[in-house]
Write a structure and sequence with these properties.
The protein is an alpha+beta fold. Among the domains are: about 75-215, Beta-Lactamase (2-Layer Sandwich), CATH 3.30.450; about 360-520, 2-Layer Sandwich (Methyltransferase, Cobalt-precorrin-4 Transmethylase, Domain 2). About 40% of the residues lie in helices and about 25% in strands. The protein has helices spanning about 5-30, 35-70, 80-95, 210-220, 260-270, 310-345, 360-370, 390-405, 435-450, 505-520; strands spanning about 100-105, 110-115, 120-125, 130-140, 145-155, 175, 180, 185-195, 200-210, 225-235, 240, 280-285, 285-295, 305-310, 375-380, 385, 390, 410-415, 455-465, 465-475, 485, 490-495, 500. The strands form five sheets. Strands 1, 2, 3, 4, 5, 6, 7, 8 and 9 form a nine-stranded antiparallel beta sheet that branches. Strands 11-10-14-13-12 form a five-stranded antiparallel beta sheet, sandwiched between helices. Strands 15-18-20-19 form a four-stranded mixed beta sheet, sandwiched between helices. Helix 1 packs antiparallel against helix 6 and helix 3 (about 80-95) packs parallel to helix 10 (about 505-520).
Length: about 525
């Protein structure tokens, strides 16, 4: 068979495939038209839900980070400047947050917000009097004051909607809508609490989110489909809704009353048993509508997200996008299949991917590169070569390197190799066999770093030059990793060819900067 005939047969077969695919798609679309709208509506609701849930998740993650700082004794109410250094960047960088508060069960409070003139802190120290002074300070920077004043008040943070003692769940709690004391705005507060290690007291940290910020956030996500996105509480007592997105056509539509529309949606939703997997279809003013509702948090469905659109406008957009997408997909499939065919035909065979380098190849590569930011050598797992005895300091030395690699960009630790890159082996550690040595390393990692981080480590014993080398390949971790030594937690990062211990304030700054760089990427 000639090449020309092969090409003709291929072209004919591919053309037939495309025509059959188009006919089948049109047939299936006409057949399931009544089902495709609710299906796509549910898909859109899930998409919007994931974007909005990610915002609430980021708030929860920030609260948990602050909780870990607090449990490690980072916060001192009498050291305002240190608190400013920690919380000024947090409030600046966390979008939609108007203020934050740190309070304890004794009645002490540190409150931070920002107006058009700069930063303001409000501090309260517990007294036995019902009336006490609130101390306000205006700051030009975290350490530079510009003004200070006092106000007499009977305010007590322990009586607010967001204050609660810690429990076994250790979960973030979202308050109902309430009025913020400092701005008189309505909003909700996300808060978390923890018990202090040194006493029976406890602390609560909260972030205030105004209703206007949530409304703006919802409106920014309501640009594609005509309708409205809204959040409501489980009982339907309040709504936070986006602006109503009118159709893009030139026709002037009657403006919808969001409260009446959402009241109708909730009425139908409750009457049908509060479904969250199947969309609702209902009529309003002789028009057909679609709505889909999903809980923001499956474990604790306090708040629900809803999407409501007119069916005719939604269907018009779906029809045009459906066929437009099919044309693009078919064109890509046609061109891609043709190119693939000619490539395979010209090459005569498929190229198989190169196998991953073996452990011994990787080991030789690391040794040849030498120690640096991502590679470190250690002579033994547990034996002090100077005293010929097992020493805890030897184990902690390489565990620090593992923690630093996890907190940085990853790296490789080779044990059984001296500083000059000479292979010394593991015989001086005196383990009975490989399994015993690997088990010992695993137990040390679980105890001092945490079993939850073992999936980020690949531990291998490689035999080379009739000696054994322990190779620990570390992948970077997005959350902070600490080295647990007794009751203390230490934080390390890589700095050049060494592991550097950071102070609590340096750790806070490093974790926040790392979180920002990951969010930007």
């Amino acid at each position: 068979m000639t090449r020309l005939r092969q090409i003709k047969l291929f072209s004919l077969a591919l053309t037939s495939f495309v025509l059959i695919l188009v006919v089948v798609n049109v047939y299936e679309y006409l057949k399931v038209r009544n089902n495709i709208v609710p299906s796509l509506m549910s898909e859109i609701s899930n998409t919007e839900l994931s974007e909005i849930r990610s915002y609430f998740t980021s708030v929860s993650e920030q609260l948990n980070v602050v909780k870990e700082w607090g449990k490690n004794g980072v916060f001192q109410y009498d050291n305002t400047k240190d608190l400013n250094k920690i919380f000024f960047p947090l409030l600046e960088q966390q979008g939609g947050i108007s203020s934050l508060v740190l309070a304890n069960n004794l009645g002490d409070e540190y409150f931070l917000f920002k107006d058009n003139k700069g930063w303001i802190t409000r501090q309260l120290h517990a007294t036995n009097n019902r009336k006490h002074s609130l101390h306000f300070t205006r700051w030009t920077s975290a350490e530079q004051k510009s003004d200070a004043w006092k106000e007499l008040s009977d305010y007590d943070p322990r009586e607010t909607a967001w204050f609660f003692p810690p429990d076994s769940t250790s979960q973030v709690r979202w308050s109902l809508i309430h009025t913020f004391m400092h701005s008189k705005e309505e909003g909700i507060t996300a808060a978390i609490s923890w018990a202090n290690r040194s006493s029976s007291d406890y602390t609560v940290f909260g972030l205030d989110i105004p209703i206007t910020s949530i409304k703006q956030f919802l409106s920014l996500r309501n640009k594609t489909y005509p309708g409205i996105i809204f959040i409501f509480n489980r009982s339907g007592d309040f709504f936070i809704a986006s602006d109503f997105n009118q159709p893009a056509s030139g026709e002037q539509e009657t403006a919808e009353n969001p409260e009446q529309l959402l009241a109708r949606v909730l009425e139908i939703w409750k009457s049908e048993g509060q479904p969250h997997k199947s969309p609702l279809r209902f009529s309003r003013d002789k028009e057909k509508w679609l709505a889909s509702l999903q809980p923001l948090d499956q474990a604790e469905p306090l708040f629900w997200l809803g999407v409501a659109v007119r069916e005719k406008e939604f269907l018009a957009q779906i029809n045009s996008k459906l066929f437009q997408t099919d044309k693009i997909d078919l064109a890509i499939a046609f061109i891609g299949s043709g190119l693939l065919y000619f490539l395979l035909w010209g090459m005569g065979r498929r190229q198989t991917p190169s196998p991953a380098p073996s452990a011994i190849v990787r080991l030789n590569s690391y040794i040849n590169k030498g120690e640096g930011v991502g590679i470190e050598f250690k002579s033994t797992i547990r034996t002090n070569l100077k005293t010929a005895k097992h020493g805890k300091e030897i184990e902690l030395a390489w565990l620090k390197a593992v923690v630093a690699f996890l907190n940085s960009a990853g790296g490789v630790l080779l044990i059984g190799v001296d500083d000059a890159g000479k292979i010394t082996g593991l015989q001086s550690d005196g383990f009975e066999n490989r399994d015993k040595s690997l088990l010992h390393v695993k137990n040390l990692v679980n105890h001092h770093i945490g079993a939850e981080f073992s999936s980020f480590l690949e531990t291998t014993i490689v035999e080379i030059e009739e000696k054994e080398v322990l190779m620990i390949e570390c992948n970077p971790v997005s959350s902070p990793v600490f080295l647990n030594i007794g009751k203390n937690e230490e934080f390390y990062v890589r700095s050049g060819p060494s592991s550097t211990k950071l102070s609590p304030s340096q750790t806070v700054h490093y974790v926040m900067q790392k979180g920002l760089s990951q969010a930007d990427s």
